[in-house]
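Tutorial sheet, problem 5. The two components below are modelled jointly, 991 residues in total.
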Amino acid sequence: MSEPKGRGPAWTEERRRSDEGRRGLKGAPEASGETLLGLTEAEYARITGILGRRPTSAELALYSVMWSEHCSYKSSKVHLRQLAAKAPPSAALLAGIGHNAGVVDIGQGYAVTFKIESHNHPSYVEPHQGAATGVGGIVRDILAMGARPVAVMDALRFGPAAAPDTGRVLPGVVGGISFYGNCLGLPNIGGELDFDPCYAGNPLVNALCVGVMRHQDLQVAVADGPGNAVILFGSATGPDGVGGASVLASAAFGASVTGGAAGQAGEAAAKRPSVQVGDPFLEKLLVECCLELYAAGLVVGIQDLGAAGVACATTELAAAGTGGMRVRLDAVPLRDPSLGPPEILMSESQERMMAVVEPGRVGAFLDVCAKWEIRAAVIGEVTDAGRLVMTWHGETVVDIPPGSAADGPVYDRPFSRGPDQDALAALDPAVLPRPADVSGLREAVLALIGSPGLADKSWVTDQYDRYVRGDTVLAMPEDGGLLRIDEETGLGIALATDGNGRYCRLDPYLGTQLVLSEAYRNVAVTGARPLAVTNCLNFGSPEDPAVMWQFAEAVRGLADGCAALGVPVTGGNVSFYNQTGTSAVHPTPVVGVLGVHDDVRLRVGIGFGDGAPASIFVLGETEAELGGSAWAHVLHGHLGGRPPAPRLAAERRLAGLLATAAADRLLAAAHDLSDGGLAVALAESCLRGGVGCSVRLPGDPFTWLFSESAARAIVAVRPGAEEAFGALLARHDVPGQAIGVTGGDHLAVAGCFSIPLAELGAAHRATLPALFG
Amino acid sequence: MRVGIITFPGSLDDRDAARAVRLAGAEPVPLWHADRDLRRVDAVILPGGFSYGDYLRCGAIARFAPVMSELVPAAGSGLPVLGICNGFQILCEAHLLPGALTRNAGLRFVTRDVRLRVENTGTAWTRAYRPGARITVPLKSGEGAYVADAATLAGLEAGGQVVLRYDGGNPNGSLGGIAGVCNAEGNVVGVMPHPEHAVGELTGPSADGLGFFASVLT
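Model answer (structure tokens):
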């Protein structure tokens, strides 16, 4: 997962790992069953080939977790390579894919690192701890880059809102995120919540973390310098999460949950020991301890321990550094003395880090750990022997070339467009019955705004601390989260995540571009300039050619979309095997976009304000585009046709306009148009600000209210700024139509309906409390 | 004016308390839990967070931190002390304030901008407010329900020791809608909501919280 190369060019991981393919083991794995610990027979044969002998049980454990799909990206990397190959040139990138997380220059000497990761399978097995440790893991990724973590976000997807199992999984996941994130002291500034039957049994729990540092604080994950000490610090190692990477995120897990609901619950219980248990208090101490160690210059290289624990940290540090390492596994502090080398290597006990430290600084290093009451142990040293050698009470139990474990196999798995795609495309939403009259339009607006995926999310977000650290300028339900970075200059960053399984199911290439567009637009409406992209790719089994096609198309769409928008991908995560039996989740790439805000004091929120009426404009072009729309989904349970057309050039112009308009103080409010179209956007802006609006639609009311055409937003222009704003529209070549004004206490659409905000708010707010208590 | 802010392991809002002190015009001074030294400060804030992970019971372990052995006698001698959220819990555990904070009535963590009524404007930390002032400040806690036995509650009400009360809805089941109390002398105040998160419209719901930090300057 990590391939540190200092400040060199990005994308080295993909290039280096592609070399592995040329050395052999390229092509699909044999179809034969799995052998020990999730390795295929071909993979086992490859290990014996590398070693020239049978592996020891410790070596087998190490290779099994390192070559798991989760750690090796063996099925995805042939596709992910295009993210680098097609990346637009960016002066802002300080470190790219292959590091623990990408690093972006935001100016004034500050750098930002951010990444999103999945914790889907653990969160189904044990929702509270699964989600909690998902937060903990991504925070350590950010910490390992040298940054102070400053905020988190969560993109959550569950089965039907009213399903009994959702009543188990959702409160557990939200409670786990609340427990861990709040105790860690990181504001939760946004994210997503959606429901669809395809996620029953496979919830998607994607956690994002963002951190900030000065340029010179960037840390690297390398074990350089023979003789330097290798120190494991943080929590003691226990049996929790042994084999998590290879068991939970694997075909074996998918295959085991085929026996119906009762069978699923039973299997989930049997896998529970594979889920880690989190201690956010220890993680808070670890954060402060690491930042003090960095500031004192005591660290040569650092790596977090996540999936595959000590196995991953030692092999990746060694492979990226001088090339060798000697480790005494019996020096690893244990919380269960019965653990042996294979368990120690595979354990995913949380809140651990590994550092490489010059011998003369070990004492100072241990002193800082002692100040923060963090346990630390020297477990080995860097060598120049090119071998990773591990001993257990004097006996050699591992002796391998570290690169062979860090570089897993590469599979170019077969993929082909699913046979049902044509039938799906033929299910044109144009045949669906539309509201017969204006009262039907009114009912549809209320149904949408109260549907679980679009309803008020306070039930969830009220459980998260959004205030801690005192720099949160915008948080949910705003379009994007916005953080102040510098109190003097007002420099800040905006973040948004978006996903849309329905669009991507209809067309993964276009759908992924729509998802990217929405996240990009959500950052832009705050007044920020989009700068970089992270992604979490949630898919079914890569062994299914139709799923592999979805994946290939999604990655191609993302690469092309990022090139067109001029924003590079800095890192991400792939989650396969999100399926129950043969039924995969919708292809669900979740895209996070980071933007820079020159002065957060000029931020723009989504809520209509009181005072003099402000003119409301719809920006962009509205066509009849209802394929995959919230209207078809909520009112008709329908999924078919084509998703809206991405309009990447128009998105870019719109973002340019919004940034300029915000800087020129022309906007009182701005809100992107996406799920549920103009109807939902107007309702949300009214409810957020507690102020109504009166609008007249320029064309067919149904299309104008519910179409989900891309590259659109509504803005409320400050009274007196209309002329300047009109000039800006022309200058940026963005179509805009004035449709009405803010004010009053109704959402009033001339000739259609007038809904009191009290009624609108009741419909919006009642849903989640009614479902979850 | 030097205002000390204690950092315990797991303190989270220490940085925010320091900012609020600075905005009010005083000098924030960091104090470390393991030092038996108040560094000659003129007032002390115990900030929010999860000291020692809130293991065992909120505030129960922090109460025994070395710095507390200095703080308790100083508070007895009149040093102004403000506990916010976890700090309030610690002051109760240390018996500098009566009562206790227990699990929210809804059993879930609650983050919400709450309206409050300032009931006592005679304390070291509230004297900048008008009597009966209504303020809006964020609340964010899982164990914020204030409880005390009936005699203690009656004594607090009779003695004017209820400093803050939830106004228009009780978010966590606190008895009497109590959001903050003080000791009989009025120098030690504990509040569950976070005035340090209400120091301006940019990052909070209001600037209403600044009054706490301005009060101790006067």
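Marking note: Confidence is low (pLDDT under 50) at residues 1-34, 253-267 of chain A. Full credit if you identified this.
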